[in-house]
TrEMBL record:
EC number: 6.3.5.3, 3.5.1.2
One CC-aspect GO term: cytoplasm
Protein name: Phosphoribosylformylglycinamidine synthase subunit PurQ
SUBUNIT field: Part of the FGAM synthase complex composed of 1 PurL, 1 PurQ and 2 PurS subunits.
Subcellular location: Cytoplasm
CDD domains for the chain: GATase1_FGAR_AT
Keyword Oxidoreductase: no
NCBIfam families in alphabetical order: FGAM_synth_I, PRK03619.1
Primary role: Part of the phosphoribosylformylglycinamidine synthase complex involved in the purines biosynthetic pathway. Catalyzes the ATP-dependent conversion of formylglycinamide ribonucleotide (FGAR) and glutamine to yield formylglycinamidine ribonucleotide (FGAM) and glutamate. The FGAM synthase complex is composed of three subunits. PurQ produces an ammonia molecule by converting glutamine to glutamate. PurL transfers the ammonia molecule to FGAR to form FGAM in an ATP-dependent manner.
Organism of origin: Orlajensenia flava
Pathway membership, UniProt: Purine metabolism; IMP biosynthesis via de novo pathway; 5-amino-1-(5-phospho-D-ribosyl)imidazole from N(2)-formyl-N(1)-(5-phospho-D-ribosyl)glycinamide: step 1/2
Annotated keywords: ATP-binding, Cytoplasm, Glutamine amidotransferase, Hydrolase, Ligase, Nucleotide-binding, Purine biosynthesis
PROSITE patterns: GATASE_TYPE_1
Length: 234
């Protein structure tokens, strides 16, 4: 039986279909879940996708983090289920306090869209075991509120505990403190990042490989990692 990975659609989600496709390309079964439901339909892992939930009103992800299904997401995350928040999904995970810190407006004040190089600094999380340590990957970045902020204490703790999972390389595109692109919770089952792995899973449809000199499918390993994790704990 294949791993079933749920992708939650919120009002204003944009990348839910791409996330479902990435799950399928990685070899798992995508399960479409709705924010207004209280049923995770027995999935083995969860993706909170990118987009503009509730039109980014209040703060990006703030209203969606109060959706009915988030009660179940929080319970599942606390029980150890692999949960990945991508961009708007990362914003929701910080708003729901499943991840520390917060995301604020890019320091240059504009929406940004680019192929971004990241360094994978923790390969022990549920979503990164298929990377090698210090591996540099290129995946798309597209957001208006991607600046990661936290107090010095929290930043020191995240770094000290190896919970900075991804760091921006070459360019810091948004003013994120300490070049942080993504983090995980203490257990390593909940991961959030601003760039978009689901958009780099299919040759010819991801980053500009001529420019990046890379495969263009660096995002696939997020999903294959989660599949390995769910099979290992089955
Ligand atoms: N791609 C996204 O998920 C964007 C998230 C959010 N709407 C922002 O602009 O910051």
């Amino acid at each position: 039986m294949s791993t079933r990975i749920g992708v939650i659609t919120f009002p204003g989600s944009l990348d839910d279909r791409d996330a479902q496709r990435a799950v399928r390309l990685a070899g798992a079964e995508p399960v479409a879940l709705w924010h207004g439901s209280h049923d995770l339909e027995g999935v083995d892992a969860l993706v909170l996708p990118g987009g503009f939930s509730y039109g980014d009103y209040l703060r990006c992800g703030a209203i969606a983090s109060l959706s009915p299904i988030m009660t179940e997401v929080i319970d599942a995350a606390n029980a150890g289920m692999p949960v990945l928040g991508i961009c708007n999904g990362f914003q929701m995970l910080t708003e729901a306090h499943l991840l520390e810190g917060g995301l604020i407006r890019n320091d240059h004040g504009s929406f940004i869209c680019r192929d971004q190089v990241l360094r994978v600094e923790n390969t022990d999380t549920a979503w990164t075991t298929d990377f090698t340590g210090e591996q540099e990957i290129t995946i798309p970045l597209k957001n208006g509120e991607g600046g990661f902020v936290a107090s010095d204490d929290v930043l020191d703790r995240l770094e000290g505990e190896g919970r900075v999972v991804f760091r921006y390389v070459d360019v810091n595109p948004n003013g994120s403190l300490r070049d942080i692109a993504g983090i995980c919770n203490e257990r390593g089952n909940v991961v959030g990042l601003m760039p978009h792995p689901e958009h780099a899973t299919e040759p010819g449809f991801g980053p500009d490989t001529a420019l990046a000199m890379r495969s263009g499918v660096d995002g696939l390993a997020f999903f294959t990692s989660a599949i390995q994790r769910t099979l290992a704990s089955a």
